[in-house]
Write a structure and sequence with these properties.
- By secondary structure, the protein is mainly alpha-helical.
- Helix content is 73%, strand content 5%.
- The protein is built from 14 helices and four strands.
- It has helices spanning 7-57, 64-93, 98-130, 134-166, 190-213, 223-226, 244-257, 282-296, 314-339, 342-366, 372-402, 408-418, 420-440, 443-477; strands spanning 228-234, 263-266, 272-277, 304-308.
- α2 runs antiparallel to α13 (420-440), α7 packs antiparallel against α8 and α10 packs antiparallel against α11 (372-402).
- The chain is globular.
- 43% of the residues are buried.
Amino acid sequence: VVGAKLGETALVTSLKAGAVGLAIIIVFMIIMYLVPGIAAGLALLLYVAAMLCLLNGLDVTLTLPGIAGIILSIGMAVDANVIVFARIREEIAEGQSVRNAIRIGFKKARSAILDGNITTLIAAAVLYIKGSGTIKGFSVTLALGIVLSMFTALVITHFIVNILYGLGLTSEKYYGKQKERKVFPFVQKAKLFYIVSAVVIIAGFVGMGLNHSKGQGAMNYSLDFTGGTSMTVPFNENIDVTGDEGAKLLNTITDTIGTGDVQLQNVQGSNDIVVKTQVLDNETRGKLKDTLAEKYGVNEAIIEEQSISGVVSDEMQKDAVLAVVIAGICMLIYIWFRFKDIKFGASAVLALLHDVLCVLTVYALVRIPVGNTFIACMLTIVGYSINATIVIFDRIRENRQTMYKASLDEIVNASISQTLSRSINTSLTTFISVFVLYIMGVASIREFALPLMAGIIAGAWSSIFIAGTLWYQMKKIGNKN
């Protein structure tokens, strides 16, 4: 019987990081959106409490991918509130009373929130049906979070805002007024944005090629994919692998064998520790045994060794890829149906592919171990990025009906400019929560949080600079209307 890989320390630090991140987000929302920000903060606290109750009541097994699903759903809950508050400010700027601005703001934001969340919900359903193992866990927490985030944003936040208004907070100064936005020529600068994205993606493929030529492997595949060597080492005293002494032991082993992909687990009821590494040659094994004998007094003769296979089988990898492909097709069909234009769906899927390739670049260049959480990380980025893209598409759809005399490029530029603050604020709040997790988390949590942060940046970039302009280019190739 072996102990946990992450242990109590990882759980405690993750919870602390979640609490700190949530507190920062609430303060940020209050500073940015005043009274509505207070309502959003209260709604987010209720959301987190309800999420924890559901996870406990449904007995959902919490894994690193599951934590990713929760982080993503919190980001989407914040996003829904930001969309609403931006709409309220726009209505006040157009001369509506605060009461009418609140009513109209929630009404106008509803379509963008529903489309974005339903699109991600479709992906979660496909992942649950076609995925396996931790992928199912990710899809469950993501689906629960999506449903709760929509409810808290459209019902709870609305209810609290009305209560605060009824308590006398009726002045415009408590809600803010949207300043006149400067329209940026996104369409005219599109080639520059495409070049930046191409450089990043090409750098990833070049890095993979160089790594492969050096015999290191294109990607730093972890034990989850490659399998390796398992050694059961009997120590003279108990060492908790999740504590400080365990961290020192891990550093000693990685320094000796020259790789950072090492997993340690205590054997319950003894002082033995299971050390899992990539496949080691005889010389490296002997060097590791000598080091353990010298520093920890281990008896080399009774160390047990065996080969282990990867926990992520070829079938699981194929299932994950198939699930993502099917989810992408389903999202494309839904966007096509909702926006009456397949070019919206095609540009959204291409933007998602851009995000995945950018995160792949980070994995390749930084040599982050590609393990079981790699799949969950990619799925998180896909779910997060599509939501941001939908918001911009929703504004383009709306402006095409109201900006009668404007050309198509003017509509696209105006739509992206109008949703720019929302895109930045949402990405920033989600980035904050993951960054705090990266700073406060244990090593395995940091390996997971780093590519997530890269994905959030890539998702924001593609939503703002790629998706809308790509749709415009497709429309130019087709009809002009």
